[in-house]
From TrEMBL:
The lineage of its organism: Eukaryota, Viridiplantae, Streptophyta, Embryophyta, Tracheophyta. GO terms for molecular function: metal ion binding; nucleotidase activity. Keywords: Hydrolase, Metal-binding. It comes from Clitoria ternatea. SUPFAM superfamilies: SurE-like. InterPro entries: SurE (IPR030048), SurE-like_Pase/nucleotidase (IPR002828), SurE-like_sf (IPR036523). Belongs to the SurE nucleotidase family. Pfam families: SurE. Residues 52-243 form the Survival protein SurE-like phosphatase/nucleotidase domain. This is Survival protein SurE-like phosphatase/nucleotidase domain-containing protein.
């Protein structure tokens, strides 16, 4: 598991080290200017390692993130950095934080320097690529993963993990998202390690071909690992299906004792918490003044309540629960079907609505050459 260091932000050794590196780079920027090309800054040394940025949707303490980082560091060929949410933001979509201050703390994940951010995966990638945290100009590749739970079909629109990879593409950096088709009460942490083993050849092939300039353009790759990774039937390029998890809204008893974490993360600073309490108090006071002559009636069922009087308002609590997908499509090249059939799925996702056929063909050609090239080396 990752070990998060949550001491004072400005006293963190990793942060101080990164700031020193940034200041050194700024001092030497005049000499770097002469080495610029159309593709950006020329590397200072031909022996420098490719930089990889890793984020995820489940938070910095998730085991899948740690296993992936450890595996990438094991071969010592990459310079791995992590910037991930401090808590689970799996279903936040491509939301970004505005009008609020994000808290950032240095941490350590699987042996790599890291930052945990009190925001979304898209926040993490945007902040990491802004140059505010790391001393490098930009990474070769951004990886969002390894995430626990398949992300197929319309679920890609809800997924915070997918948003992290998409944000990288928007910023002009190649990216992939990797998820394991986790089965509750069946899958275990060893499956996450096996999933990392399965996806490593594709990661290394992607990095190699990005540097050669032959990696597919205008898309990022959504890689799905089947629930039994080591017995997969092979790699298949797939299309996004039209399926999604069922969203079930459940009425919650008003007697239920909500935890403080229901309203805000318990890892936010005291100042932010007090500010929020002040805002809530002001809003509550305004609501009391507005409804001073009305009586709130908390009920469990609208049907049972019947018609309310003009001096009454209704108040209820709901919680959304995700249920399993109901398989509707039978086409073998759709992501959901292929993943359930035991294939490793590679689904190219684009920012452009009409580029599907061209991009899928490009990814199919690259994948065939890339994986065969790895076997021959």
């Amino acid at each position: 598991m990752a070990t998060s260091v949550k001491n004072n932000f400005m006293n963190q050794p990793a942060l101080v080290s990164n700031l020193k590196q940034a200041l050194t780079r700024r001092k030497d920027s005049s000499t770097v200017q002469g080495n610029r090309t159309n593709e950006g800054i020329i590397k200072a040394s031909s022996n420098s390692k490719p930089v990889v940025l890793i984020t995820n949707g489940e938070g910095i303490d998730s085991p899948g993130l740690t296993f992936l980082v450890q595996a990438l560091l094991r071969d010592t060929l990459l310079d791995v950095h992590v910037c991930a949410p401090q808590s689970d933001r799996s279903m936040c979509g491509h939301s970004v934080t505005t009008r609020e201050t994000l808290a950032v703390c240095s941490a350590e994940v699987g042996g790599a320097n890291a930052f945990q951010v009190s925001g979304t995966p898209a926040d993490c990638v945007s902040l990491a690529l802004s140059g505010a945290l790391f001393s490098w100009s930009k990474p070769v590749l951004v990886i969002s993963g390894l995430n626990k739970g398949a992300t197929c079909g319309y679920d890609t629109l809800y997924s915070g993990a997918i948003a992290g990879a998409r944000e990288a593409l928007i910023c002009g950096v190649p990216s992939i998202c990797i998820s394991l088709n986790w089965e509750n009460n069946v899958s275990c942490e060893s499956d996450l390690k096996d999933a990392v083993t399965v996806c490593l050849p594709m990661i290394h092939a992607a990095i190699r071909d990005i540097q050669k300039g032959i990696f597919p353009k205008n898309c990022f790759l959504n890689i799905g690992i089947p629930s039994c990774p080591l017995t997969n039937k092979g790699v298949k390029v797939t299309r996004k299906s039209a399926e999604r998890s069922c969203l079930s809204w459940q009425a919650v008893s008003t007697n239920r004792n909500f935890s403080a974490g229901h309203y805000m993360s318990n890892q936010q600073s005291l100042g932010i918490m007090l500010a929020q309490l002040g805002k809530d108090a002001s809003a509550s006071a305004a609501a009391r003044r507005l409804n001073s002559n009305r009586k709130n009636v908390e009920i469990e069922s609208v049907g049972v309540a019947g018609k309310l009087s003009s001096q009454q308002t209704m108040k209820r609590h709901f919680r959304m629960e995700l249920t399993q997908k109901v398989q509707q499509n039978t086409e073998e090249d759709l992501d959901t079907r292929a993943l359930e059939d035991g294939f490793v799925t590679v689904t190219p996702l684009s920012l452009y609505a009409n580029a599907h056929i061209e991009i899928q063909s490009s990814v199919s050609s690259w994948l065939a050459i890339a994986l065969n090239g790895d076997k021959s080396n």
